[in-house]
Amino acid sequence: MNSKKSSRKKSAPELPGIIENSAESTANAALVPRLALTDFGKFRDRRFALGATTIFFGPNEAGKTTVFDALFAALCKPRANRVDGKRLRERYGEDALAVFEPESAAKRLPAVTEEEFMNLYAVRAGDIRVEITARSSWMDRVKSRLFSGDLDPAAVARNLAVLASDDGKRVHNKELKKFYSELARCEQELAEKNDEQQRLRQREKEIEQAGARLEATRDEIQSARERLEEFENEARHEERIRERDVWNRRLKLLKDHEQAGQRVESLALYAVDELPALDALQNELQKSHEGVLACASRVEHQARELEQARAALEDSEAREPLARRKRSEADHCLDRMQRTATNSYIKTVTRWNTGRLIAAAIGAVLGGCAGFFGVAALMPGAESLAAAVPAGILGALLLGAPLIWAARSVAQIPDDSARRGLLSGIKDDWRSRLGEEFPPVESLEAAAEALTRFRLDAEALQKQIDAENERVRELKNALAETQSEREAAVNRHRAREVEISNWLRDRKVEDRAGYVLKCDERRRRLEEQERLANEIARMIEQGAAPDAEALQLECERRLKALDEDGVPAHGKTETEFRGLQNEISRTRMRLDQLNREERELGEKRAGDSGELRGALQRLTAELGGLEQSSLRLKADIAGRELDKDAAGAALNIFEDLRSDNNVLLEQLLGELGQSVRKILPGVASMSLQQDGDFALQELMIPDAGGTERPIDHLSSGTRDSFVFAARIALAGHSRDGDDPAMLILDEPFLTLDEPRERQCLEFLREFQQERGWQLVLLTKEERLRDLAREVFGEAALLHELNRIGSEDAEK
Length: 811
Hints:
alpha/beta, 6-stranded mixed sheet, 22 helices, 13 strands
């Protein structure tokens, strides 16, 4: 290996199986507990638990595609303006929502783009049937994480493109077209020769067998004639039995007619329909019953009213003694208030006018000043001061005294203390005599009003007691009258019951239905008698006898004659007799057919077989040559087609790995080899050649005969298993060793048989144990469901989906 290409700045990632980490802890860290769906297709409000391995099983239209789209939406969260986002909105609507719960668990899964999901983490039905890179972006994530450098396998890719091309101008395609044309011509000629040989051999066989068949046909003709004679004798015997049965039926018909007349006579009591009379009696009974119920209802209602009136009267009478005592005390208090003199509540008070008092003060000041300063001016000197002071006081008195007298007034007002004393005395007397507080009033007038109300309440209560007594008496009388009416209604009802009972007893029935049944029975018996009479009349018209009596005698005579001949009473059933007749017809037809075959076999034996044997020998030689040519052409076509398919597969790999480092490619191919060997035991390894050219070593697998052959020369199932292993390995390389992810498989094994399915599932189990990825499998195949649960164990979570209108199951 070139040392320059081996030294890289970016180290190679570890391969599965070499990563040292705990699978259990990784699985727990990556585990998404639930998928929650709201208005998502058929799932209005549904939550699916998700385990390390989850299986969704159900028939078509059960919702598996909806679950797949929901996982895509929850993992990728496609934008509304992207193609996938528009597709989801058009399919499930604007309100459709798919999320992982809880959000913290979903955040541990790294973000996934729509392209990564479809190309790396989702394997849908038919994906492994296409080439490895059916979508050009399938390895984008791998290349961005693993590969860098200047490796350019373009030259190899160009050569492979030429070999894988379908261009009709290419030499190998022209040769392939020529081979197909020669093969079609050869196969058409071979088919024509085979048809001719088959016809000749069939004719030879017919000629060889004609002699033996002729003798066998003659023996069969004799046997058929004997069987026909036996069947015809048996048929004639059955005809005599059927003749006896006819006369028996006629005789029974006559006896049935006689018995029908006797039954009609026994029901003569019901010849006239008296049902309207019974219905009239029953209507009267119903009316009397309704009258009894109405009276009973009225009695119950009046009894309740009487009970209520008595209760009200008892309540009023219980309140009457206290009301009477209150009235007596109110009369006493009102008399006390009237006896007290009115002037006992008046007193005299002196009042002062504030304005006049101010004017008197001002006048006194002015008068004092005038007297003081006037004397002081008239008497100068020290003596004037002694004289001025008295003069000022006198002036103030002279001018202020009249004004003060004018400001004074005398008035008489109510004596509130006396009134409060009287009110307090009334309240004390009320409390001491009646044992309850007087109403809260603040004046004698309010007290008088309260006392008057007590008197009026007592009078109203007495009137109420009188009215309630009158009401009780009226209700008692009405109740007694209604009870009498009820008794009369009950008597009328009983009389109607007795009348109906006598009516039914006279007609020997228990109820109306019994009478109707008797009338219907007589009508049916009468119709039966008429029907039998009509049948007897038809037999007489057909000439069986001149009248009914003669017909009975003829029946007895014929039956006696058949008994003497030993004809049994019973023979074959109608079905058996028809079978016998059919057997006679088939035997006659078989005789005709055997006679024709006898003539044809004689003609075939007379044919010339020498010319036929010569033609067969010539055709055998021609067919041998055509078959050898066809085998050679098919081998050439198969080899060239396999070369194109192998070149196409290699071309896709080389185009996607065009810029990858040789060291990393060698590791990737080594891991692909490990993955393929887990599914296809005995596969050789894959590696790069030392000269730096990228080439895939052939995968050698022993075929059914033990010969090792390249994988592209084997069955489609083997190639599909290789593609599946390669796709899972590349998906694993898109994540670091401890980076969690979810792998979704939607019907991935449509072309694989059960052993290959088991190997793929065991490979997935090992992949999950190494990587800790979460697996989701969607399938409608019961065999794949059971096989997955067997491989992953009972811990695998199973959701059984049903079509719309049914409940889904979870295990």
